[in-house]
Amino acid sequence: MSKAIVIGASSGIGLEVARLLIQRGWTVGVAARRVDLLNTIGAADVEMIDVTSANADSSLMALVERMGGMDLFFYASGIGKQNRELAADIELATLQTNGVGFTRMVGAAYRYFAQQGRGHIACITSIAGTKGLGPSPAYSATKAMQNVYLQALEQQAHARGLDIRITDIRPGFVDTALLAGDFHYPMMLKPQTVTREIIYAIEHKKHIRVIDWKYRILTALWRRVPRSIWRRIKL
Ligand SMILES: NC(=O)c1ccc[n+]([C@@H]2O[C@H](COP(=O)([O-])OP(=O)(O)OC[C@H]3O[C@@H](n4cnc5c(N)ncnc54)[C@H](OP(=O)(O)O)[C@@H]3O)[C@@H](O)[C@H]2O)c1
């Protein structure tokens, strides 16, 4: 394994993952909308990609071509906002980026790997997909969609005899621009800590990785909370 493409590498977790992969000797191509930030990483190649745009998959393939191939597709792009008033624009933009954009880009990588006969797709989803979270309905729902989509791809790859590894990375709260604002989040993780665990999950070809251990306990517990109680919990 040597060539990786990181989508959503301009800030936060994606940026840290791109940096660490480069440090570990990978040839890394990076993409996102803010090319000025991408240009500071020291990546082998850079592509401006807005995952909500209809030609984003072609831009990915152009980057793969210039890189001379792809072994690891790492997907970090995403948006998320608390939306307690359920503003329609926030909900719909979240579906476009985390739902449509995700499906477009992961699908393009999957088809490429299917043709190549092997490859590794690793995506940052979230623990938010493991339960419906009242403060951010579209974020929570799109993350659940991503969790299930990756599970489905894993089964499809196996059924088709394709050597495509899927890794679903589910961090808890991480101190990045995504959570910037007045709201105080508990149990906040540092992006660097999360990134080390992500690299471990990639190198050990994990199927699912909840980050970190505290969130592994938390999600195991909250999965057991019955719906009749869950709907009464104030988050
Ligand atoms: N922070 C957390 O607590 C947390 C927890 C669990 C999961 N996650 C997930 O981790 C991923 C990374 O988030 P982060 O926390 O690192 O936040 P971040 O610092 O805001 O990074 C988000 C990344 O997504 C990219 N992006 C957003 N919209 C895009 C679009 N339309 N096209 C292409 N790229 C786009 C951004 O690049 P441009 O703006 O330059 O396009 C940026 O590189 C997200 O999927 C998020 O849901 C975050």
UniProtKB/TrEMBL annotation:
Organism: Xylanibacter ruminicola (Prevotella ruminicola)
Gene Ontology MF: a single term: oxidoreductase activity
Protein name: Short-chain dehydrogenase
Family listed: Belongs to the short-chain dehydrogenases/reductases (SDR) family.
InterPro entries named in the record: NAD(P)-bd_dom_sf, SDR_fam
Swiss-Prot/TrEMBL keywords: Oxidoreductase
GO cellular component, one term: membrane
Signal peptide: none
Coiled coil spans: none
